[in-house]
Every structure is written in C-alpha cells, then in structure tokens.
Amino acid sequence: MNSASKQIPVLVLAGFLxxxxxxxxxxxxxxxxxxxxxxxxxxxxxxEIDAMTVAGRLGDSTxxxxxxxxxxxxxxxxxxxxxxxxxxxxARLDVIVIEASGLAEPQELVKMLLASENPRVMYGGLVExxxxxxxxxxxxxxxxxxxxxxxxDLVVLNKTDRVEEAELARLxxxxxxxxxxxxxxxxxxxxxxxxxxxxxxxxxxQLAFDDLLDDQEPGGCAEDHDHHTGCRGHRPHLHAGYxxxxxTSDVPLDPRRLMAFLDTRPEGLYRIKGFVxxxxxxxxxxxxxxxxxxxLRFHPEPWTGERExxxxxxxxxxxIDAPALERxxxxxxxxxxxxxxxxxxxxxxxxxxxxxxxxxGAAEQNDRPEQDEQLSRDVQEPDEAGEFxxxxxxxx
Length: 396
Ligand SMILES: Nc1nc2c(ncn2[C@@H]2O[C@H](COP(=O)(O)OP(=O)(O)OP(=O)(O)O)[C@@H](O)[C@H]2O)c(=O)[nH]1
Fold this sequence. Notes:
Keywords: Chaperone, Hydrolase, Nucleotide-binding. Pfam families: cobW (PF02492), CobW_C (PF07683). 27% of the residues lie in helices and 23% in strands. By secondary structure, it is α/β, with parallel strands linked by helices. It has a 7-stranded parallel beta sheet, with helices on both faces. A 5-stranded antiparallel beta sheet has the order 10-14-11-12-13, covered by helices on one side. A two-stranded antiparallel ribbon has the order 8-9. Guanosine-5'-triphosphate (GTP) binds next to α1, β11, β12 and α13.
C-alpha cells in the first residue's frame, strides 16, 4: 500500500487518574525506534502537565488538546482537525496514540474514532491502564471503571511493583475482563502488543460495537452535553463532579510549607501533578510531583536553560473547595526568595524521592533520549524533507 492510501491505526490509551498512562506513552515513544508515533495528549486541567511530560522528555512536540475531557469538553471537530493533520502522508506516521485524560469516558473516544470520516484513520484499539495498588479503591468510588474495562482491547495492569504476588493474583481474577491483561511496572510493556492492529472488522466485534452505540449516534456527545452529568440522557461521565485547580507561581515554593499542605491534603483531592521550583532550597533541580490518592513522589531533575523557573501544578479531585486550595497553595510561596533557606528545609520533600533502585522505571522515564527522528508530531508543518523542527513548549 503506498503512503498516500495507507491507513494509520489510532490507539486510545485510557485509564483512571494517575494509573500510568503518560509513563506508558513515554515508554512506547522510547522503545519504538523503528515506528513513527504521533501523540495526542488530553489533559484535564488548564496547565498541560501531561503534554509537557511527554513532549519535554523528548525535546519534541505533542498535539495537546488542552483543558477538559476529550470525550466531551473538547469539540470532536477539534480532534478531527488534529487527526487530519497527523494522518497526512507528509507526516509519515505509522501509528497515533491518543492519551485520554484520566477522567475521560473511553467509549466516547472510541465512537468518535469509529465515526471519523477521514479515510486514513483506522481505529487501533482501546488500552486501559489500571493502577494495581489503587484499583480496589478506585472501583469502590467509580464502579463505572468496570464498564471501561469491559470495552478494552487490552488491559495493562500497571504498578505491579507496588503489590504482592498474592494480591496480584486476586486482582487478575477480579478484573474479570474479556480482554487480554498484561502486567507492567512503569508501563514497560512490549510495544508490539499495541502496534499490530487486527483488521477493523475484527476489532469492532471485540469491542461490542452495538454496546457502544446503544444509546446515541456516534460522535454525538460533544454537542449535547451537560458538564455535570455527562451527555444528556446518557450515563453520567466519570468526570462529572470532578474539578481541577491550576496553580502557577513565579515565586519559588517553600518546601516545608508545601509539605505541610501535602500532609493535610483533603481526602477528595485524588491527583496532584506538575513541577515545583523550590528556589534557593535547591537551585539546581526542579521537582516533578505526583500524588495519586495518598501516594506521593517527587522526582528531581536538573533545570535546563530552556525551562522557565516556575511552579506549575494541577490538582484534580471530587468535592474539593477550589478557592480554598488555591489560597492554601498561595500561602506555600517563600516569603523572601533570596533568603538562605533553613538547614534541612528539603528533608520533608526528599523523603518522597524514590531511591534509584526503587525507581528504575521512573528513571528510564527520565532519560532524555536523543531527539528521535521517528517522533513526529504535528503543530508545525514538516519541511520539504518531511522533518519537524523544534517546537514550542505547549504551556508556553
Ligand atoms: N511505583 C510505580 N509508580 C508508577 C508506575 N507507573 C507510573 N508510576 C508513577 O505514577 C505516577 C503517575 O503516573 P502517570 O504516568 O503520570 O499517570 P497518568 O495516568 O498519566 O496520570 P493522569 O494523567 O493524571 O491521569 C508517576 O509518579 C509515575 O512515575 C509503576 O508501575 N510503579
């Protein structure tokens, strides 16, 4: 098949907040040296932390669909636009991965793709990432997760390093999904599981296409939507009731104040992600922060000249008091950024920096590989040779 008529598989990578989607996407991008992958990243939160994490790691760019869940807050025509651009022969992509926000309804995305009129788009399957350590708690709060798993083509049971073998066996049995389940730590799965899609007719059977279309026309969600309950007349979306708070500060944060905030974060504040500038307390590093439920980790990485020194955080939760969280975060900034920090000021933070051996997968994630020719994304037009230049930071 020549490149102009080639169909490009478009894969949806979904999974609850913090399950490890970005980690898995970064692994795929790194591991697939021979495959040209395009990535579309959808963040739930007005600062695009995931887009930064994917693009930043690779010194390249990612199409970012910005704030809101791709399944409804983002107009499906916007998705079509990106797909049109990414599937152009000049982009020379072999596969496109859409990382859905952690609160997306995967069936809506699948419907959008199946309804796409772009002849080069071939739906490539739904991968659901599950956090092995948080699965029971997540399912208790969101039974609809089972519905998501039921339509998945592949389930990645991630964070196996955080649970005992007996617990894993119990989880495997309780997932009760018809799809294949692969286990992973830090999303390190064989990319071939993702990029060899079966013909679409077989996939539709596997996906129970009738179920997907049970109560509405494909792609009909975007125009007929109530943001609090989901699509009108349909099942409530997972993100109904979830709120996100974005916090940015050009003044460094005080590590002790931030830790006091994190130690007393409210129950419903399920996910925190972003980057922190601790100023004089550690002028060499910025700190990636990830909280999932009660789990907290900081990942220091050297500041580079390309990045502005600032703190950017996204907080996502249900039943949270957004203005109060903003006030509490604002109270975490240092009073005098030039003041010498108290001795041991960073100790509280460093307790949550994983030991290198504990964090092998994350370390792999932190490696910044050479710019990879295969990592084409859109946003810029390729030059005549079909190459992409440097792209601007998606958060700008
Ligand atoms: N221990 C452990 N941590 C992991 C694993 N995979 C990912 N993480 C960590 O879990 C946190 C969340 O990972 P992400 O890849 O950002 O999760 P996500 O699903 O993209 O998160 P959202 O975009 O907020 O939904 C990060 O701190 C990761 O380093 C794993 O297998 N084991």
